[in-house]
Design brief:
149 residues, five-stranded antiparallel β-sheet, 35% strand
Length: 149
């Protein structure tokens, strides 16, 4: 059972499509572009969503890629996952990069370009210690140390 968290949303223009979950139980809501954008090879653009939100304190909206778009096109969300903080009130735009070196890509108005995932955000309370080596177990490694498989 999912907990519903109310997030107030302002539609920047009357033809904006409100994000929605495609299937029951989905974690991410599909977000759409509000304009046609030509993206040159290697270019990074801001894709407007037509949405302004008031996220409750203690939450963030993460902007994540859509798997089909990542698989079938050269378009990538440049700062994935992106974070929309609770205090942000301007229009949400998605930072997208065309990773192709020789082909342009066309984003059309209404295209599903990303997903929104609502997450709770606990704050870190750092505690300075003399050494972390004696706390828990050091698994070691990192940066691919467990091999390719």
């Amino acid at each position: 059972m999912f907990e519903n968290v109310e997030v107030c949303v302002e539609l920047v223009s009357p033809d904006v499509v409100l994000p929605k979950y495609s299937k029951p139980g989905d974690a991410g809501m599909d977000v759409r572009s509000t304009k046609d954008i030509h993206v040159n090879p290697g270019e990074t653009v801001l894709v407007p969503t037509g949405l302004k939100v008031a996220i409750p304190e203690g939450y963030e909206i993460q902007v994540r890629p859509r798997s089909g778009l990542s698989l079938k096109t050269p378009m990538r969300i440049s700062n994935s996952p992106g974070t929309i903080d609770a205090g942000y009130r301007d229009e949400i735009c998605i930072i997208m990069t065309n990773t192709s070196l020789d082909e342009s890509y066309e984003i059309s108005k209404g295209d599903r370009i990303a997903q929104f995932v609502l997450q709770k955000v606990p704050h870190i309370a750092f505690k300075v210690v003399d050494s972390v080596a004696e706390i828990g177990e050091n698994r070691g490694g990192g940066f691919g140390s467990t091999g390719k498989n």
